[in-house]
Amino acid sequence: MEDITKINSDISDVMKDISDYLEQTRKGLMIDMSSLPEKIVRIQGKVQSAPRNERLELTNFMNQVMQSLTMLSNEIQQRHDSLGRDIDTLEGRVYKE
What we know:
The chain is an all-alpha fold. It has one domain. The protein has three helices and no strands. Helix 1 packs parallel to helix 3 (about 50-95) and helix 2 packs antiparallel against helix 3. The N and C termini lie far apart (about 65 Å). The mean pLDDT is about 90.
């Protein structure tokens, strides 16, 4: 069982990663999030193993992580949709020529 301070630090690190990914996505940069799921699963295990009195606080922090992931997912979807429209527009112009 890990200290709540260490778990909070891990959660903060993931929140920073998500924030960085969100900023990069907004700038139109490709991002590699391959390590993120493993980090989140590892932290969730630590939260579930935490003493009951600390688990509620940690669960609230994990809920914030999930909300941030939803924001990131929505931003990625918007960028994907926008890129798809741009490609369709460009293809339409090419076929007209």
